[in-house]
User: Fold this.
Amino acid sequence: MRTAYCVETVRAAEAELMARLPGGALMHRAAAGLAAACAGLLGRVYGARVVVLAGSGDNGGDALYAGARLARRGAGVAAVLLAPDRAHPGGLADLLASGGRVADDPFEALAAADLVLDGITGIGGKGGLRADAVPLARAARGSNAVVVAVDLPSGTEADTGEVRGEALRADATVTFGAYKPGLLVDPAHDHAGPVRLVPIGLEEHLPSVPDLEALQHGDVARLLPHPAAESDKYRRGVVGVVAGSARYPGAAVLAVAGALRGGAGAVRYVGPGADAVIARFPESLVQGGPPSKAGRVQAWAVGPGLGEDAEGAVRDVLASDVPVLVDADGLRLLDPQTVRTRAAPTLLTPHAGEAAALLGVSREEVESARLASVRELAARFGATVLLKGSTTLVAAPGDAAPVRANPMGTPWLATAGSGDVLSGLTGSLLAAGLDARDAGSVGAYLHGLAARLAAARGGTPITAQEVADALPSACRDVRNIRDVVPGVS
Ligand SMILES: NC(=O)C1=CN([C@@H]2O[C@H](COP(=O)(O)OP(=O)(O)OC[C@H]3O[C@@H](n4cnc5c(N)ncnc54)[C@H](O)[C@@H]3O)[C@@H](O)[C@H]2O)[C@@H](O)CC1
Ligand SMILES: [K+]
Assistant:
């Protein structure tokens, strides 16, 4: 599990640790890790041209000390001081003593740089880049240099991933002690590039429950349902899918395609798309009439492609005593009180537009404040919420469990019908017994991984059908199983 901690928590842990160490020790650890990462990116340090953008705080200090280390290895290092009279005194002195210099012309230095260190602001930064920093960040981006963000890209919000105004775009980020939530959440995540974590001894001073977390392959493998020898289809769970309409028959097929690959023992489809579903998936059970008359299921997935007829079906499944996933058309007219009073878990899976409608705000507000939006929806509905998008987030109601950010997303998933596959898949995981936060985050992970595998296999663009077809490969990938059947050769 990759874990991330808010600024307040990181600062408290740092204070505890610093009290036991000689002054400056943490900054030297950070700078040593940063310089080593830069050396790796440069390949050859001797003769490389490095520019350090140094703000007035300790983030600038890290960058200046790392610059000094690179200068001692033969790099030509020039510092651009955003606030010359408030630059980190120890860092600047070390840089100058190591053969570095202050740049005469910042833009000339940036244009010729092989590597730029962004030490403008770190966890102490507030708001986007200030006016004097914007042209420097743009010049760094416009050069051929590798741009490395120190701790986080300057101008991004460490706790939320928000970018208010302009932020630096990095090719890579080297962060210290712990991931910050913003590094895992768009739009900040998108500014960071690949993130490397440099341990500075903070780990044992951090609380066991992080503020945000992201699954990795091993976590998904552990959470995935495994059929036991004595399992039959009912013990493995039956997922009910209520999707599709005369207008959107494809949604039924795609949701069932996802559901068949989610680990439930059987898929019961209820709705007007039964003929299309049976033609494509004869292994599914199909039923007409209302969901409540369709026979026992262990979870429902309701909403994709229901069109105008969603209301009755949603009311019907919400009245059941099993977990319910509500998506797409099912989210329109959803009453918070009805969801709050359910005894069984509810999982809502809006995209930003649907989330905006539920919250009564604009889509842009949701996109720019994804973490706050998903938390607010979970609180308002007393439900687990999976907010789809550039970084899919899953929040459970209450503060006990950290929000999960999906690290497996890909822009290629922004294709018609891919959400229907995710609904079926995630509903199936609910029916197989995963709790709503696990089902949502495992569903999003496998869905993203399947899309990546489909793209690698068949090229882009990919279709929703291909995403569904690649789900078994995604499950094998997380379990590290190659395409051979054990015992059969
Ligand atoms: N506390 C510690 O022991 C450690 C801190 N470290 C570094 O210290 C950083 C935090 O340092 P600070 O608390 O000094 O804070 P920062 O260096 O992140 O920024 C604070 C300074 O930037 C200015 N500022 C705020 N918002 C700005 C904006 N939008 N544009 C321009 N300037 C802005 C403030 O006036 C202040 O002078 C971390 O991100 C990390 O890089 C590391 O060295 C590890 C150890
Ligand atoms: K920075």
